[in-house]
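Q: I have 197 residues here and want to know how they pack in 3D. Can you give me a structure?
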Amino acid sequence: MDEVGPTVSNELLELAKSGDEDANDRLVELIYPLVTSTVRRHIQRRADHEDVIQEIFVKMFLRLEQFRGLSPFEHWVSRMGVTTCYDWLRKRKARPLQSYSDLNETEAEVVERTLHGSLSDDSLYQRDLLDGLLDKLIARLKPREQIVIRLVDLEELSVKEASDLTGWTTSKIKTTAMRARRKLADHLRHLEGPSNH
C-alpha cells in the first residue's frame, strides 16, 4: 500500500470533526495522494477518476464522526476508497474486450509473443503495452474479481491485507483470486490468435 506523507494527527481529526475549515483543507491535502493512488489502481477509465475521488472525500467527511481510531485513519480511508471503487465498478460496466479482433495490431503482436515466450523482458515499450492489455483483460472480470486481482497480484498485498482493506473474508479473497486468475488465463487463450476465429 502506498505511504501517505505525514500522518493525520488526532488533533487535526478533532478539529475537522468540529467543522474547522482549515483542518478540513489540511486533511484533504494529507489524504489526497492516498485517495488518488487508490482510484488510479482500481479504476481503468481516467475520465472517471475525479468523480470517484470526489465520492470518496464526500463519504470520508460524511462519516468522519464514525471514525473511532481503532486503526490508523489512513487505513480507514483506504478501505473506504477500495469499497467505493468496487461500488463504482459494479455500477458502470465497461465494454469488455471480446476477441482478438478487438486488439490493435501492436497489442495482438504482444499477445502472440507472450503466449509463445518470445516477449523480451528488457523492452519498456512492450511492458507498457502488456500492462495496457492486462488492464483490458482485468476489465472483463466481475468487479469483486477486479479489486482482488489488483490488490493481491498487482499490488502484491497479502490475503490478510486485502481482507482488511475490503472487509471480505480471507477465504473469499483466496477463492476470488483463484477464480479471477483462471478467467484471465481463459481470456488470454481466447485472444490467442486469429487462426482460432
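Q: Anything worth noting?
A: The radius of gyration is 19 Å. The domain at 10-91 is CATH 1.10.1740.10 (Rna Polymerase Sigma Factor; Chain: A).
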